[in-house]
Design a protein that fits this description.
This protein has two helices and twelve strands, in the order αβββββββββαβββ. It is an alpha+beta fold. It has a single domain, classed as Umud Fragment, subunit A. A hairpin with a 2-residue loop joins strand 6 and strand 7. It starts with a helix and ends with a strand.
Length: 191
Amino acid sequence: MSLKKKSVLRDWVESIVIAFLLAMVIRAFIVQAFKIPTGSMRMTLIEGDLILVNKFIYGAKVPFTDLRAPVLRQPKRGDVIVFIYPEDKKKDYIKRLVGLPGETVEIKGGSIYINDKPASEPIFNQIYYFNKGDFGLAGEKIVVPQDSYFVLGDNSASSKDSRYWGFVPKKDVLGQAMIIYWPPQRIRVIK
């Protein structure tokens, strides 16, 4: 094999390795693609939607450690977040953030109440929330622990969410859903 052929092969291998490493860094710290498997977030997200999740906004997790990158901003009520499912650490879930650390959450008459006042974000006025599960019973107020969040699916009738399994630890939040990028007729910013 000539020296020139080795050089071309080496260039190709180097390019592939660099592209792979760059893709892994982007996926770990900046943005990751996810596919929506269920209808628990209908009509915001429907089955088969492909989305991009902003991982750096809340401070991306450093792989294989408990460390996080610097936080640009804290999660806020109304954000659609991706997190590690509390009942199976191998699964990622997506839901809307409703209750912040230290807040009291109640579902009353189909509406969300935060600290005994109706949630003021417009998205919560567009959804009817059902009283279900151990953490969403009628007449019960739930206090969100420090370093945790209370999340609900937008399709309240068909969503397994914080009403059933409790709270999402802050350390398990992976990022904020940003954009539906597939199918083409559903391309949009997620709100």
